[in-house]
């Protein structure tokens, strides 16, 4: 078994076109021996957002602090708060935004594509 504190996991600044104020930590992944799934923690600063994007794999999202918005492929906005979960299908266009005054964070669980 592998265990560690979230704060001990290296922060990765999402330095890509369309991303602003987003930091990722890979809490559990291939380096921990997880062959099938990866759990990531994203933090978005006030006014920050991920790029609008798609990818071939689905992911499960669990909101753990603050408020934010998930924008779906059809432009539908879902305000997310602590205790809410979401499922984003593979190839579904989506974006995460934080238009609020406080930081927000969520867990994002995806399949391990490097398997």
Question: Would you give an account of this structure?
Answer:
With 115 residues, the chain is mainly beta. It has one domain: Jelly Rolls. It contains no helices and nine strands. The chain has strands at 12-13, 20-28, 37-49, 59-65, 68-71, 77-80, 85-88, 95-97, 104-111. The strands form two sheets. The chain has a six-stranded antiparallel β-sheet with strand order 1-2-3-9-4-7, with no helix packed on it. A hairpin with a 6-residue loop joins strand 1 (12-13) and strand 2 (20-28). It is globular and about 40 Å long. The two termini are 19 Å apart. The mean pLDDT is 95.
Q: Would you tell me the structural class of the helices and strands?
A: mainly beta
Domain count: 1
Strand content: over 45%
CATH topology: Jelly Rolls
Tell me the name of the CATH class.
Mainly Beta
- The stretches of 5 or more residues where confidence is low (pLDDT under 50) are none
Number of helices: 0
Major sheet summary line? 6 strands, antiparallel
CATH homologous superfamily caption: Jelly Rolls
The radius of gyration computed from the alpha-carbon positions, rounded to a whole number of angstroms, is: 14 Å
Strand arrangement, major sheet? 1-2-3-9-4-7
3D shape: globular
Query: Average pLDDT across residues?
Result: 95
Ends apart, CA distance between termini: 19 Å
Order of helices and strands: EEEEEEEEE
CATH architecture: Sandwich
Helix proportion of residues, in percent?
A: under 10%
């Amino acid at each position: 078994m592998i265990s560690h504190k979230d704060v001990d996991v290296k922060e990765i600044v999402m330095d890509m076109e369309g991303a602003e104020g987003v930091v990722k930590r890979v809490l559990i992944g291939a380096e921990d021996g997880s062959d099938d799934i990866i759990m990531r923690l994203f933090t978005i600063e006030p006014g920050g957002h991920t790029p609008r994007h798609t990818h071939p794999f689905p992911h499960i999202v669990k909101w753990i602090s603050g408020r934010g918005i998930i924008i779906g492929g059809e432009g539908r906005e879902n305000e997310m708060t602590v205790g809410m979960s979401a499922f984003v299908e593979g190839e579904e266009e989506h974006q995460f935004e934080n238009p609020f005054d406080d930081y927000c964070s969520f867990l994002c669980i995806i399949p391990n594509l490097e398997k």
